[in-house]
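Anyone able to model this chain together with manganese (II) ion?
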Amino acid sequence: MNKKIAVIPGDGIGPEVTNQSVKVLDAVAKRFGHQFDYRYAVMGAVAIDQTGNPLPDATVDTCLQSDAILFGAIGDPKYDNNPAASVRPEQGLLKLRKVLQLFANIRPIDTYKALQHMSPLKAKQLENVDFVIFRELTGGIYFGKKELQADGTVAVDECTYSVEEIERITKLAFEYAQKRRKKLTLVDKANVLETSRLWRKVVQQLSANYPDVSVDYMFVDNAAMQIILNPAQFDVVLTENMFGDIISDEASVLSGSLGLLPSASIGNTVALFEPIHGSYPQAAGKDIANPLGSILSAAMLLDHFGLQQEAMAVRKAVEWTLLNGFVSKDIDPVNNYSTTAIGDLVADHIDRNKDSDVG
Ligand code: IPM
Ligand code: MN
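re: yes, here you go
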């Protein structure tokens, strides 16, 4: 298979972790006889520094001409601490999501036996935890009208959702649930928000088309608690943009580290794959960041290409590193391996398993 992959390393630890994914994809290509052509593009603070624009047109073009996008991370503290900045790195990612209509962000929450001791939760609570968050990604308060009144004393962020925006991700979430344990939980704040009541109405209506899927509804404040108290109850969690952002960071605690979680953003055009973590500026350039969130995002990219066996080989290699204690500093502050070393180990494992079982 011959595929074009747009690579956007981004800011902070983005380039370091993305390099490991490219290394892993190269090992996959070599072992399974594929060709992946990478086209590098800039976005975020690095793009502002180079061009003044967090999302240059050339980057959008590169994405549109590719079969998938691998993205690292975005954000730089020099903007976080300057509320008056008119151009911000995050605008690049938000605009790319909007332009490419990447309306569904899929965030699987897996747990690993080898890491259970890392979680602040008791092992018993982590048993049978296996759920997926479907986060709406191109609507809601992130994209509503924004305003700071001239005298600086009042600010506005509007939250808007249309039936169409809710329907398209809800359909995907139901279809996904049908392939899993057939349970869908809508997380909202329908006791307070009008947009949440519209979400409930749309989900209720569409549920008639998926009679094999059981649906429940949970207020987001309760969901935040249930994710900690009884995470095994969830299968597919469907929610709007900002609630999904918040509960997915919370849910990463179940896995053992935020650095482990991958995601896929899909829509009507080319799909984008990115770890859910941020740019972790304190670690940038130190070769200590966890590359597994990015590497597992590359596995989701392979799934998206229909390369299930290849994706499985990547996941098996990742599990092998975890089982053998080849982990980064976020997982083991005492005995740890560098970003590069973990990337090498995963790639080598894929390479060495040439003739052994996969799948
Ligand atoms: C994420 C990130 C982004 C978001 C930021 C960087 C804009 O936190 O992908 O979860 O809030 O969506
Ligand atoms: Mn986030």
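Residues 14-32 form the longest helix (19 residues).
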